[in-house]
Amino acid sequence: PPGKGRRMKFHRVSLRDYKAIRSFVIEPRETGVTIIEGENEVGKSSIAEALWLVFDQTDDSSSAAVRNLKPAGRDASTEVEVDVSTGQHRFTYFKRFHRGSRTELRIAAPRQETLTGREAHNRARQRPHPGLHAGGPLRHRQGHDPRRGAGQRRRHHSRQHLSPDAAPRHA
After folding, report:
1. pTM score, whole prediction
2. Which comes out higher in pLDDT, residue 116 or 30?
Protein backbone atom coordinates (compact mmCIF):
# COMPACT_ATOMS: atom_id res chain seq x y z
CA PRO A 1 0.00 0.00 0.00
CA PRO A 2 1.07 3.63 -0.49
CA GLY A 3 3.26 4.94 2.28
CA LYS A 4 4.28 1.51 3.56
CA GLY A 5 7.51 1.86 5.50
CA ARG A 6 7.33 5.67 5.60
CA ARG A 7 7.31 7.52 8.88
CA MET A 8 5.47 10.73 9.56
CA LYS A 9 7.49 13.31 11.46
CA PHE A 10 5.88 16.30 13.15
CA HIS A 11 8.19 19.31 13.15
CA ARG A 12 5.64 21.64 14.73
CA VAL A 13 2.12 21.26 16.15
CA SER A 14 0.06 24.32 17.04
CA LEU A 15 -3.37 24.36 18.68
CA ARG A 16 -5.49 27.42 19.41
CA ASP A 17 -8.81 27.41 21.27
CA TYR A 18 -8.93 23.62 21.16
CA LYS A 19 -11.20 22.48 24.01
CA ALA A 20 -9.40 23.49 27.25
CA ILE A 21 -6.24 24.58 25.38
CA ARG A 22 -6.09 28.31 24.62
CA SER A 23 -2.75 28.17 22.83
CA PHE A 24 -0.12 25.45 22.59
CA VAL A 25 2.87 25.06 20.28
CA ILE A 26 5.31 22.20 20.34
CA GLU A 27 8.40 21.87 18.16
CA PRO A 28 9.88 18.44 18.90
CA ARG A 29 13.59 17.90 18.57
CA GLU A 30 14.79 16.41 15.31
CA THR A 31 15.72 13.15 17.03
CA GLY A 32 14.56 11.33 20.11
CA VAL A 33 11.26 11.16 21.92
CA THR A 34 9.07 14.04 22.98
CA ILE A 35 7.09 13.51 26.17
CA ILE A 36 4.10 15.70 26.97
CA GLU A 37 3.27 15.79 30.66
CA GLY A 38 0.88 17.69 32.87
CA GLU A 39 -1.92 17.50 35.39
CA ASN A 40 -5.14 15.64 34.59
CA GLU A 41 -7.66 17.42 32.37
CA VAL A 42 -5.28 20.04 30.91
CA GLY A 43 -5.35 18.72 27.33
CA LYS A 44 -2.65 16.08 26.82
CA SER A 45 -5.00 13.67 25.06
CA SER A 46 -6.44 16.55 23.04
CA ILE A 47 -3.07 17.00 21.33
CA ALA A 48 -3.12 13.42 20.00
CA GLU A 49 -6.78 13.79 19.06
CA ALA A 50 -6.00 16.98 17.10
CA LEU A 51 -3.41 15.14 15.02
CA TRP A 52 -6.04 12.65 13.91
CA LEU A 53 -8.84 15.18 13.56
CA VAL A 54 -6.99 17.67 11.35
CA PHE A 55 -6.62 14.99 8.65
CA ASP A 56 -9.96 13.27 9.15
CA GLN A 57 -12.61 16.00 9.51
CA THR A 58 -13.49 18.79 7.06
CA ASP A 59 -13.40 22.35 8.39
CA ASP A 60 -17.18 22.69 8.00
CA SER A 61 -18.03 19.35 9.62
CA SER A 62 -21.02 19.28 11.94
CA SER A 63 -19.91 16.00 13.54
CA ALA A 64 -19.96 15.60 17.30
CA ALA A 65 -16.15 15.35 17.28
CA VAL A 66 -15.88 18.84 15.76
CA ARG A 67 -18.71 20.37 17.81
CA ASN A 68 -16.95 19.19 20.99
CA LEU A 69 -13.76 21.07 20.11
CA LYS A 70 -15.22 24.46 20.88
CA PRO A 71 -13.87 25.85 24.15
CA ALA A 72 -16.47 26.10 26.93
CA GLY A 73 -17.76 29.59 27.61
CA ARG A 74 -16.05 31.25 24.64
CA ASP A 75 -17.20 31.95 21.11
CA ALA A 76 -13.90 31.10 19.44
CA SER A 77 -12.81 29.23 16.33
CA THR A 78 -10.62 26.19 16.88
CA GLU A 79 -7.35 26.10 14.93
CA VAL A 80 -4.90 23.25 14.32
CA GLU A 81 -1.69 23.58 12.32
CA VAL A 82 0.93 20.89 11.74
CA ASP A 83 4.27 21.03 9.98
CA VAL A 84 4.99 17.51 8.75
CA SER A 85 7.40 15.49 6.67
CA THR A 86 6.90 11.99 5.35
CA GLY A 87 9.28 10.50 2.83
CA GLN A 88 10.31 13.26 0.44
CA HIS A 89 7.22 15.33 1.23
CA ARG A 90 7.22 18.33 3.57
CA PHE A 91 4.05 20.32 4.17
CA THR A 92 2.17 22.58 6.56
CA TYR A 93 -1.50 21.83 7.05
CA PHE A 94 -3.83 24.34 8.71
CA LYS A 95 -7.47 23.93 9.63
CA ARG A 96 -9.91 26.31 11.35
CA PHE A 97 -13.19 24.86 12.60
CA HIS A 98 -16.42 26.73 13.48
CA ARG A 99 -16.74 30.41 12.64
CA GLY A 100 -14.63 31.39 9.60
CA SER A 101 -13.78 27.78 8.77
CA ARG A 102 -10.74 27.38 6.54
CA THR A 103 -8.35 24.71 5.28
CA GLU A 104 -4.93 25.37 3.76
CA LEU A 105 -2.22 22.96 2.63
CA ARG A 106 1.19 24.48 1.86
CA ILE A 107 3.48 21.93 0.27
CA ALA A 108 7.17 22.83 0.51
CA ALA A 109 8.71 19.70 -1.04
CA PRO A 110 9.16 18.04 -3.40
CA ARG A 111 7.42 20.86 -5.32
CA GLN A 112 5.97 24.05 -3.81
CA GLU A 113 2.21 24.30 -4.03
CA THR A 114 -0.62 25.85 -2.00
CA LEU A 115 -4.14 24.45 -1.91
CA THR A 116 -7.21 25.62 -0.01
CA GLY A 117 -10.65 24.35 0.93
CA ARG A 118 -11.87 20.88 0.03
CA GLU A 119 -9.06 20.48 -2.51
CA ALA A 120 -6.51 20.90 0.31
CA HIS A 121 -8.42 18.47 2.56
CA ASN A 122 -8.62 15.81 -0.15
CA ARG A 123 -4.93 16.13 -1.05
CA ALA A 124 -3.84 15.91 2.59
CA ARG A 125 -5.89 12.74 3.01
CA GLN A 126 -4.15 11.19 -0.02
CA ARG A 127 -0.75 11.46 1.61
CA PRO A 128 0.47 8.41 3.51
CA HIS A 129 -0.23 8.88 7.21
CA PRO A 130 0.69 5.68 9.07
CA GLY A 131 -1.19 5.46 12.35
CA LEU A 132 -3.53 8.36 11.57
CA HIS A 133 -6.84 6.73 10.74
CA ALA A 134 -10.23 6.77 12.37
CA GLY A 135 -10.33 4.52 15.40
CA GLY A 136 -6.67 3.58 15.10
CA PRO A 137 -3.81 4.33 17.46
CA LEU A 138 -1.58 7.33 17.02
CA ARG A 139 1.96 6.04 17.06
CA HIS A 140 4.70 8.59 16.76
CA ARG A 141 8.42 8.24 17.30
CA GLN A 142 10.48 11.33 16.45
CA GLY A 143 13.76 10.70 14.67
CA HIS A 144 13.43 6.89 14.53
CA ASP A 145 15.54 5.47 11.72
CA PRO A 146 14.46 1.88 10.96
CA ARG A 147 17.81 1.26 9.21
CA ARG A 148 19.62 1.40 12.57
CA GLY A 149 19.72 -1.65 14.80
CA ALA A 150 17.63 -1.68 17.98
CA GLY A 151 20.72 -1.27 20.15
CA GLN A 152 22.03 1.61 18.03
CA ARG A 153 19.12 4.03 18.35
CA ARG A 154 19.99 7.30 20.00
CA ARG A 155 17.86 7.99 23.04
CA HIS A 156 17.32 11.71 23.39
CA HIS A 157 14.26 12.96 25.19
CA SER A 158 12.54 16.32 25.14
CA ARG A 159 9.98 16.92 27.86
CA GLN A 160 7.13 19.40 27.41
CA HIS A 161 4.91 20.38 30.33
CA LEU A 162 1.30 21.26 29.59
CA SER A 163 -0.09 23.49 32.33
CA PRO A 164 -3.73 24.45 32.95
CA ASP A 165 -3.29 27.66 30.94
CA ALA A 166 -1.66 25.54 28.18
CA ALA A 167 1.59 27.49 28.08
CA PRO A 168 4.35 24.94 27.39
CA ARG A 169 7.47 24.77 29.54
CA HIS A 170 10.59 22.84 28.61
CA ALA A 171 12.08 20.64 31.31
Report:
1. 0.73
2. 116
